[in-house]
């Protein structure tokens, strides 16, 4: 008995020594890494600030104030002094196109460049290619050119007479092709416009070389696929783009089974570490498509690869874009009388697709830019959810760009979440009011009205339509100005977000949009250790500096994945 008592006293004395030394008694509470002396914005429910964090494995085990983190330091704990630098949760881009970012890095980059420069790049690429090889690129925007006119096939014919050429417009809703590409796609004067698309024609009804939305399908179908190796190369390049911009999570707004399989291969090898919420794209023209058929048969996937991959939502395309005049409006375009844009689906087709998704237990997200497409999506969601209720559905409308007062209130009442991209407002401001006129514009890109109705906004970039940098989006949300600082005071400044709202849109609200707010989106004990260190205080720096914030360190699951 004496021996047992002596052993107990020895163990208690040993524990008291460790406790007195600042070590946590429970070995489970010894951290792998502790960060101290930080200016940490937690984005928790109380918007508290902290100065220290402790990490074990992938998760935060402590977030708090000066002096407490020492209790989590053991002999092998790495201690990092932040030296007063600002820390925020890892940013979450709620709407981008991950494979497209990567693939675009393998193509001609015409992003917002003058037409002459794009044609020069095409000519140079043609000189490197064999006759008949496809030349691909992206990023042209005729609204930035002096004449603001769509380009023509003849211009591409002159630059690349022996190669088919296909260049995506910056918004992804139009393509510019040459005569060889039209010939390969079988598009002639006699080809009818398809549902949800338009062939732009000259005065003789001949195709000019610009194909809107689904009209580009016959040409796009003839472009050879990239090899898996090239796609995976692009995906890793895209990951580096995200990490260097402080993005630790993103929603890939519509992709296909082959790309998802490429992602899985990279996750299995430990090379892909970014957290992706992947929406499965539906097929064109109302068809379900092989990707959805596969997933409807096999079911959603959540939390794969240590909470790095979710595939549990369906992406439907309701209309086109404002820049291409293919967004579906309730009234005519102000700058094109008699034209209301293009619905991608009839009411019956959209109902069938949404109902099918609900029956299979999938979250629904619909691209809808014009008030006509937004109304169609709202009506369809409401009808399906009345027939088959789901209290916490979190169904989404992607872009929610040109809405009206009734639509803003209805999504709040129905629990529909808008996924909006702040930089679209500052990029589109030069043409948007021309498209919809002075009255409808008051409800376009209307963040304040949407928030005041009681709705959270998922923030995103729509990259590669816009640059991926999320601080451009936060800056646009707060200032309503472009990166040149115009217009002074902001474009329709009454629609500005606060800095806190803008940060939430790119963190906790984006996490809500994928049902992941319990594991990420804020810096709290028990959540994933995803955060970034930045070069200035996002909450106190002059607002014109928000766009210039630089990421110094990006951490995913406790691992440093990028350092400037």
Write a structural description.
By secondary structure, the chain is of the alpha/beta class. Helices cover 33% and strands 22% of the residues. Helix 7 (228-244) packs across helix 8 (257-268). The chain starts with a helix and ends with a strand. Mean pLDDT is 93; it is low at 1-27.
Offer a quick outline of the entry:
By secondary structure, the chain is an alpha/beta fold. It contains 18 helices and 25 strands. It has an eight-stranded parallel beta sheet with strand order 8-15-16-18-19-20-21-22. It has a six-stranded mixed beta sheet with strand order 3-2-7-23-24-25, covered by helices on one side.
Number of helices: 18
Radius of gyration over C-alpha positions, nearest whole angstrom? 26 Å
Q: Average pLDDT across residues? A: 93
CATH third-tier fold name of the largest domain: TIM Barrel
Helix and strand arrangement:
Elements: H1 2-20, E1 33-36, E2 39-41, E3 49-50, E4 52-56, E5 59-64, E6 78-81, E7 86-89, E8 91-96, H2 98-104, E9 108-109, H3 115-128, E10 135-140, H4 153-159, E11 165-169, E12 174-177, H5 179-185, E13 197-201, E14 207-213, H6 217-220, H7 228-244, E15 247-255, H8 257-268, E16 275-281, H9 290-298, E17 301-303, H10 304-307, E18 309-317, H11 347-359, E19 363-368, H12 371-387, E20 396-399, H13 405-414, E21 417-420, H14 422-440, H15 447-452, E22 458-459, H16 470-479, H17 499-505, H18 508-512, E23 531-534, E24 551-556, E25 559-563
């Amino acid at each position: 008995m004496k021996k047992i008592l002596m052993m107990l006293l020895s163990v208690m004395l040993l524990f008291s020594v460790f406790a007195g030394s600042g070590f946590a008694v429970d070995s489970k509470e010894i951290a792998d890494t502790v960060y101290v002396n930080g200016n940490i914005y937690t984005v928790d429910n109380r918007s508290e600030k902290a100065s220290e964090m402790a990490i074990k494995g992938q998760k935060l085990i402590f977030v708090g104030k000066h002096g407490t983190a020492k209790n989590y330091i053991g002999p092998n704990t790495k201690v990092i002094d932040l030296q007063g630098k600002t820390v925020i949760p890892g940013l979450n881009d709620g709407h981008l196109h991950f494979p497209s970012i990567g693939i675009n890095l393998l193509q001609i980059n015409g992003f917002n460049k003058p037409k002459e420069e794009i044609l020069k790049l095409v000519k140079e690429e043609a000189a490197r290619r064999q006759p008949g090889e496809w030349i691909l690129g992206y990023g042209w925007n005729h609204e930035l050119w002096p004449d603001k006119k769509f380009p023509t096939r003849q211009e591409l014919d002159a630059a690349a007479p022996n190669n088919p050429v296909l260049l995506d417009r910056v918004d992804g809703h139009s393509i510019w092709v040459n005569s060889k590409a039209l010939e390969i796609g079988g598009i002639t004067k006699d080809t009818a416009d398809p549902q949800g698309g338009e062939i732009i024609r000259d005065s003789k009804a001949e195709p000019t070389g610009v194909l809107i939305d689904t009209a580009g399908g016959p040409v796009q179908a003839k472009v050879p696929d990239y090899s898996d190796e090239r796609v995976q190369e692009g995906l890793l390049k895209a990951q580096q783009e995200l990490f260097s911009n402080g993005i630790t999570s993103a929603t890939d707004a519509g992709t296909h089974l082959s790309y998802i399989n490429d992602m899985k291969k990279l996750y299995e090898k430990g090379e892909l570490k970014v957290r992706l919420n992947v929406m499965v794209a539906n097929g064109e023209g109302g068809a379900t498509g092989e990707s959805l058929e596969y997933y409807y048969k096999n079911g959603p996937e959540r939390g794969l690869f240590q909470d790095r991959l979710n595939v549990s939502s369906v992406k439907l395309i309701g209309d086109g874009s404002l820049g291409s005049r293919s967004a579906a409006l309730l009234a005519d375009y102000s700058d094109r009388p008699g034209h209301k844009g293009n619905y991608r689906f009839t009411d019956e087709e959209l109902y069938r697709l949404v109902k099918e998704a609900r029956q299979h237990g999938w979250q629904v997200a619909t691209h809808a830019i014009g008030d006509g497409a937004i109304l169609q999506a709202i009506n369809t969601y409401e009808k399906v959810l009345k027939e088959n209720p789901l209290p916490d559905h979190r169904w989404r409308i992607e872009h929610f760009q040109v809405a009206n007062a009734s639509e803003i209130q209805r999504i709040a009442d129905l629990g529909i979440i808008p996924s909006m991209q702040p930089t679209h407002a500052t990029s589109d401001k030069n043409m948007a009011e021309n498209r919809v006129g002075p009255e409808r514009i008051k409800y376009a890109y209307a963040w304040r009205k949407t928030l005041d109705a009681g709705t959270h906004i998922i923030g995103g970039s729509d990259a590669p339509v816009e640059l991926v940098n999320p601080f451009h989006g936060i800056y646009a949300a707060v200032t309503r100005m472009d990166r040149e600082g115009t217009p002074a005071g902001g474009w329709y400044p009454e629609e500005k977000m606060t800095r806190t709202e803008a940060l939430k849109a790119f963190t906790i609200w984006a996490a809500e949009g994928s049902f992941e707010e319990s594991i990420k989106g804020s810096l709290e004990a028990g959540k994933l250790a995803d955060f970034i260190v930045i070069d200035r205080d996002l909450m106190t720096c002059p607002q014109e500096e928000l766009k210039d914030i630089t990421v110094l360190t990006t951490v995913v699951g406790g691992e440093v994945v990028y350092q400037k």
